[in-house]
Amino acid sequence: MSLELFNQLEQKVTDTVDALEMMKLENEELRGENAKLKEEREEWERRLNSLLSKFDSLDTSSAS
Questions:
Q1: DSSP label of 64
Q2: Which of 61, 15, 23 is nearest to 53 (CA)?
Q3: Where do the domains of the chain lie?
């Protein structure tokens, strides 16, 4: 293997490792964002269910 080919291979390996590190960082950020969005959705669901139960109690008391 010539020195030039070896240098090209080394550069490709270095570039690939760098790309993988960047992807890992992005993945970590996206996981954090996803967790935050899940928490927000759960809070909205909890609040919506609370409102719906209030409407149900109004319907029940109106029917009586």
A1: -
A2: 61
A3: 21-45
Look up the pTM and report it: 0.68
DSSP assignment, residue 1? -
C-alpha–C-alpha distance, residues 57 and 47, integer Å: 15
| Element holding 26 (H helix, E strand) | helix 3-63
Give residue 38's pLDDT band: very low, low, confident or very high (50, 70, 90): very high
CA distance 36 to 40: 6
For residues 4 and 31, give the distance between their C-alpha atoms in angstroms, rounded to a whole number: 40
